Amino acid sequence: MKSILLSAFSAIALLVSQNFANATVSTVSDIKNPNFVCFHISKSEALVFKTTNPQRIWKTLQDREGKIKTYKALQLGLSEMDLTSDFKAIDTFKANVTKDYQLLGSFEAQPDGEIALSVTSNYLPDGSRSNITDQYNCSRVRN
Hints:
- By secondary structure, the chain is mainly beta.
- Helices cover 14% and strands 48% of the residues.
- A 10-stranded antiparallel β-sheet has the order 1-5-4-3-2-10-9-8-7-6, with no helix packed on it.
- It starts with a helix and ends with a strand.
C-alpha cells in the first residue's frame, strides 16, 4: 500500500515539475543567470533574457536608480526563441503572458553597437486582434 502511494506521489511530482519546466503561461520566479537585459525607452520596465538552457524571459520593473527587480519577477511562458548560430545573440522571440496575450520580439543591431528590440503585444480577448509595439534598448549582461 505504501509503495503504491509513493509511486502515485512520485508520478504527480514529476508531472508538476515537468509542466513547470515547460511553462506555456506566465509564472513568478527570481531572475537567475541572465544574458541580455532590455530597458523600455519610456517606461520603468525591462525584459530580461536567459539564452542558455533552460531559456527564460522575465518581465520586470526598474527602480529609480535604473536597477532591475530580480526577486519575484514575471517569468513569461516562452514558446520560441531564435538565436544566432553562436548562441550569443537573439534574433526573435515569442512568449505568452496569458492565454490570450502574446509578445513577439525582434532584435536589430545598431551601427553604434547597441541592440534595439521591438516588441509587439498581441491581445485576443474577443477574437479581434489589437497590436501595440514597444521599443527597448538592450545590452549583454557581464557575468
